[in-house]
């Protein structure tokens, strides 16, 4: 094992540095390259997708230097029995419902704060309206970068690494879920204040569910797929 790998396993400073590095990579791309692409929505989301891919690579490097695999985060690529697969799918449906309710609760919270109902600002996705080719391409990208990528980054990576800073105590796991939810809401700042609050509540539901299902990340990935589909389909059909 390399010196860096040993440091990541034993040094809190190195562990905090790893967490910061993952988000520094994204920030550098989004704030450095983003302004160069102008207002083109596809180009802007392309920059976000590139940032997420680089974050995933950084997360993988952390595992690699530690001598760990994706299984450390509950992400197994081995073929399981049909019973296990069916169970995971059924759990994902339940998590989807819970996360959807959490999203709605976020809307209620915002309504109480601002005194009127407010929806997340999804106008940045207007380019999907009545454009099947772009919609299908975007949906595929969302499944990979958002549904899969965000679960790896904000649930698997962030929750586990924050909890490990305090040796995985119950308080540490609780704090990790809360912090990851707040961060998850914050990175959706382009959705406006309502979107931040709603995604934070959704992240909280997904984070708790991740622990409840024994950190089987495929469950929350599938639930995230359903959520993203439910969010984008109405935008596509809202033509005109």
Description of the molecule:
The protein is mostly helical and 240 residues long. The chain has two domains: 1-68; 79-237, no CATH class. 76% of the residues lie in helices and 0% in strands. The chain is built from eight helices and no strands. The radius of gyration is 18 Å and the shape is globular.
Q: Say how many strands there are.
A: 0
Order of helices and strands: HHHHHHHH
Q: Determine the structural class based on helices, strands and strand pairing.
A: mainly alpha
What overall geometry do the principal axes of the alpha carbons give?
Answer: globular
In total, the number of domains comes to 2
In DSSP terms (H or I, runs of 4 or more residues), the helix count works out at 8
Percent range for β-strand residues? under 5%
Which parts are unreliable, with pLDDT below 50 for 5 consecutive residues or more? none
The major β-sheet equals: none
**What is Rg?**
18 Å
The portion of residues assigned to helices is: over 70%
Rounded average pLDDT? 88
């Amino acid at each position: 094992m390399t010196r860096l790998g040993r440091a990541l396993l034993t040094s809190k400073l190195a562990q905090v540095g790893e967490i910061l590095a993952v988000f520094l990579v994204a920030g550098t791309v989004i704030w450095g390259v983003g302004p160069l692409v102008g207002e083109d929505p596809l180009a802007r989301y392309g920059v976000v997708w590139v940032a997420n891919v680089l974050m995933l690579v950084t997360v993988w490097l952390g595992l690699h230097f530690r001598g760990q695999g994706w299984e450390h985060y509950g992400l197994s690529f081995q073929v399981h029995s049909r019973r296990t697969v069916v169970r995971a799918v059924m759990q994902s449906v339940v998590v989807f419902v819970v996360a959807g309710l959490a999203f709605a609760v976020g809307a209620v919270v915002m309504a109480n704060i601002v005194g009127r109902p407010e929806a997340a600002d999804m106008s940045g996705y207007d380019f999907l309206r009545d454009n099947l080719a772009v919609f299908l391409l975007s949906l595929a990208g969302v499944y990979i970068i958002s549904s899969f990528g965000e679960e790896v980054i904000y649930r698997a990576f962030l929750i586990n690494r924050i909890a490990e800073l305090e040796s995985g105590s119950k308080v540490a796991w609780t704090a990790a879920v809360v912090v990851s939810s707040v961060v998850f809401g914050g990175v959706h700042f382009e959705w406006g204040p309502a979107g931040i609050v709603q995604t934070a509540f959704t992240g909280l539901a997904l984070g708790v569910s991740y622990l409840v299902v024994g950190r089987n990340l495929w469950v929350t990935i599938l639930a995230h797929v359903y959520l993203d589909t439910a969010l984008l389909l109405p935008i596509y059909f809202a033509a005109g």
